[in-house]
Design a protein that fits this description.
Layout: H1 2-8, H2 13-37, H3 42-54, H4 56-74, H5 81-90
Helix pairs in contact: 1-4, 2-3, 2-4
Length: 91
């Protein structure tokens, strides 16, 4: 039900995959930022920040996979966003 609603809102599997990749980069940035901006708190705190943000990637990849399966079933997997919107608005 959530995947169907996301699909109806225009969220595509590619969006979720891009968010997953971005969260991997953000995890590294959060780790380095915590290490530099919070002196004296140690490596353990930086590791916790990096792991916290790093936990998002599997969620986004899982959503991407679920959306991809829904798009295969719906027949919109190969459609680009403009074709999808035209079809949705016409129906």
């Amino acid at each position: 039900m959530i995947i169907k609603k996301m699909h109806e809102m225009g969220v595509r599997s590619e969006h979720a995959y891009m968010a997953g990749m971005a969260s991997i980069g953000l995890s590294v940035v959060a780790w380095m930022g915590s290490l530099r901006m919070e002196p004296g708190t140690g490596l353990a705190r930086a590791d916790r920040w990096g792991i916290f943000v790093g936990e998002w990637a599997p969620t986004f990849f899982g959503l991407g996979l679920a959306l991809s399966h829904y798009e295969q079933h719906d027949g919109t997997l190969t459609a680009d966003v403009h074709e999808f919107r035209q079809t949705r608005n016409a129906g």
